[in-house]
Specification:
Layout lengths: L11 H25 L11 H10 L6 H18 L4 H23 L10 H28 L8 H14 L1 H4 L10 H19 L11 H9 L4 H20 L15 H46 L3 E9 L2 E7 L1 H6 L31 H11 L4 E7 L5 E12 L2 E10 L1 H59 L4 H28 L2 H4 L6 E2 H18 L3 E3 L7 E2 L3 H17 L6 E9 L2 E8 L20 H6 L7 H11 L3 E6 L5 E8 L4
Parallel strand pairs: 7-9
Antiparallel strand pairs: 1-2, 1-5, 3-4, 4-5, 6-8, 9-10, 10-12, 11-12
Helix pairs in contact: 1-2, 1-3, 2-3, 2-4, 2-6, 3-4, 4-5, 5-6, 5-11, 6-10, 6-11, 8-9, 8-10, 9-11, 10-11, 14-15, 17-18, 18-20
Length: 671
């Protein structure tokens, strides 16, 4: 039989076809059952109502009311085919329609599909069957009174409908998942034994009170067969018992009609049997599903435990002198060689707790055992340690302790091999020490270089001063011809050039004392104008224009001599790298509370990857080398030193082709 769900069928045609097929079956069952009762107004058993409920549940929930209307028509026709009057047939059809609708609504409430898979599903079926049968009995009683019948009791309808719902609906709603397969002889013997027991109890002429006898065989079946198979057996028992009891046979035939009557009594018997067996079967299905999920989870966990790249150990800490190893993977046995054996080889073999391998507790304890002892004293039951194993490996150990009982606990240990990381850390420490030593040596070499430059510069300053003094003396006190004066001019020019170089070297290598910022203030307008006046002849000689936009009145908190040397170096550099007919622009402005001086030329520019390198001492850019521009590579290094000494910053910007801009920011005097 097809399972009934609340999901929308694939098409409207398929839905209607299934509904019509089920109602046709209900018509045959209803008319046949009603005809079987002969002149009785109420049938002894009414399986058609269960098929009607299935027909309602076969359509989408939104169509339930229309399906109930269909049940009303079909069931009215079924009763009329059994020669019942129209009024009685219509009332019974209405009872069937309302009952089927209520059962369908209760079973499908809040569910995507109706299945008997858990014990609470059986409880829901019992409630739905009881409510539906009770409402049907009330409508049937009212129908009988309206049609002049003297019978107004609703018990026969209640029992016959409830037993039919509990024995017929499970045929479509139970699972086909089988139980654990037993021996083949049991699969054959159980249905035979059940049939023999039922026939023995209800065989014509037997009146022994042995109605309980079939129950053990049904329970036996729940251990062998699926819930669907047990529903079939229940339906077969219900049909057999009802038929034989209605014919006057079996232990219920002698029940007094003044009480419930034999047929009603047997329906109560069937309801009890159905509720019990369905609860057993669905409980078994539920346990099987839980066991399957647990087995899958255990398999995953065991697989992860065995194949894990870290060592995992699960222990039962019985006392300070006894620790039992429950599980340990190969990695743990490898890292803790000699202490922990592998215990996860065959999970199918059950090992008693007393038979588990013990962890050897010796004196003095090993680092692993010592960590376990420390975890006992930890208030959180957690511990971390790092130690060297017996074979020289460095491992990290993470312990988690969960108290099981007085003095007992389960302990999980994660053992991670960190030997390579330990070696890498040691290598890094050695490299860091070497780097620090190298840095110290470089600092010492740099200090010696600065001392050397300072010493040499001081030694050079005196002879250069003497050369310039004697050149001036010769020019002033000796009559020279034009050629001689030209020769002296060359000597003077180169002596002064050498003097500037010596001064630069002194500024760069004079030591920490020179790096202290000199106090003083500088009028930037005056400093820019003076620098331009001094360098105008040089620029004119090279065919380069000097442009100075309006300079605002700004007072920088910087030494006047330092600002002058900064401007001189920057403008001189710009002139040297600017071709004839080019332009050098010196601009000054206020930016965020600082003074910014920019020197922009229209030369060949500096490559972007060289913008930071040009501040290095003695560095010469590729453009300077290609153009054979004279220089020592100390100018920008000196400028940066002077700017930073006065609390400012300097940066370069260039596209590497058409321009270069040097930007200097100096703090302004705060009023």
């Amino acid at each position: 039989m097809l399972p009934v769900t609340t999901r929308l069928p694939r098409s409207t045609g398929a839905t209607l076809l299934l509904h019509v097929a089920l109602m046709s079956l209900a018509l045959m069952l209803g008319s046949g059952t009603a005809a079987f009762t002969g002149s009785n107004l109420i049938s002894v058993w009414w399986p058609a109502v269960a098929v009607c409920a299935l027909a309602v549940m076969a359509v989408p929930r939104g169509w339930f009311l229309a399906a109930a209307g269909s049940v009303l028509v079909w069931m009215t026709l079924a009763n009329m085919l059994a020669n019942r009057p129209f009024g009685l047939s219509f009332g019974y059809g209405l009872a069937n329609a309302v009952e089927a609708l209520l059962v369908a609504l209760l079973l499908t409430r809040g569910r995507r599909r109706v299945r008997l898979e858990r014990r609470r599903d059986v409880l829901r079926l019992l409630v739905a069957g009881a409510v539906g049968a009770a409402v049907a009995s009330v409508i049937a009683s009212v129908t009988l009174m309206l049609n002049g019948a003297s019978y107004v009791g609703g018990t026969p309808v209640l029992t016959s409908h409830a037993s039919a719902l509990l024995t017929i609906l499970p045929l479509a709603l139970t699972s086909t998942r089988g139980a654990e397969q037993g021996p083949r002889w049991q699969l054959l013997a159980q249905p035979v034994a059940l049939a023999v027991a039922v026939l023995y109890v209800f065989w014509p002429g037997h009146t022994l009170p042995l109605a309980f006898l079939p129950m053990p065989f049904l329970v036996w079946g729940t251990l062998l067969y699926s819930s669907r198979a047990m529903a079939v057996q229940l339906a077969a028992v219900a049909i057999t018992v009802t038929t034989l009891t209605a014919a006057g046979h079996g232990p219920f035939a002698a029940v007094s009609a003044q009480a419930l009557g034999p047929v009603q009594t047997v329906q109560i018997f069937l309801i009890t049997y159905a509720a019990s067996i369905l609860a057993f079967a669905t409980g078994r299905d539920e346990r099987q599903a839980i066991a399957a999920r647990l087995a899958e989870r255990e398999q995953v966990l065991r697989g992860g435990l065995i194949e894990a790249q870290i060592g995992l150990v699960i222990m039962h800490d019985v006392s300070s002198r006894e620790i039992r190893i429950v599980e340990a993977n190969a990695r743990a046995a490898e890292l803790l060689a000699g202490e922990v054996p592998i215990t996860t080889d065959d999970p199918s073999v059950e090992v008693l707790d007393e038979d588990l391998p013990r962890l050897e507790v010796s004196l003095p304890p090993s680092p692993f055992v010592a960590a376990l002892s420390a975890a006992r004293l930890s208030p959180l039951g957690e511990w971390y340690d790092q130690f060297e194993t017996r074979d020289g490996r460095q491992v990290e150990l993470f312990l988690t302790r969960v108290v099981r009982g007085p003095g007992e606990a389960f302990v999980t240990a994660q053992v991670v091999d960190v030997t390579q990381r330990h070696l890498a850390d040691a290598a890094m420490q050695r490299a860091l020490a070497d780097e620090r030593a190298a840095a110290a040596r470089l600092r010492e070499v740099n200090r010696q270089k600065d001392d050397f430059l300072s010493s040499v510069s001081h030694e050079l300053r005196t002879p250069i001063t003497s050369i310039l003094g004697y050149v001036e003396l010769i020019e002033d006190e000796t009559e020279l011809d034009a050629e001689q004066r030209a020769h002296l001019a060359v000597v003077e020019r180169n002596a002064r050039r050498l003097g500037v170089l010596v001064e630069d070297l002194l500024d760069l290598g004079a030591g920490a004392a020179r790096n202290e910022r000199d106090s003083g203030t500088t009028d930037l307008r005056e400093a820019v104008q003076q620098t331009c006046q001094e360098l105008l002849p040089v620029a004119t000689a090279r065919g380069v224009r000097l442009e100075v936009p309006d300079v605002p009145a700004l007072l920088a908190a910087a030494a006047r001599a330092d600002v002058g040397r900064i401007l001189t170096n920057l403008v001189t550099n710009a002139i040297k790298f600017t071709p004839a007919d080019g332009c050098v622009t010196i601009a000054t402005r206020r930016v965020d509370g600082d003074a910014e001086i920019t020197v922009t030329d229209t030369g060949s520019g500096i490559s972007p990857d060289e913008l930071e390198q040009v501040f290095g001492r003695f560095y010469r850019s590729a453009a300077a080398e290609e153009s054979s521009v004279p220089g020592t590579g100390l100018g920008l290094a000196l400028v940066r030193s002077l700017v930073e000494r006065n609390g400012g910053t300097i940066s370069l910007d260039s596209d590497g082709a058409t321009f270069t801009t040097a930007s200097v920011r100096l703090p302004l005097v705060r009023h």
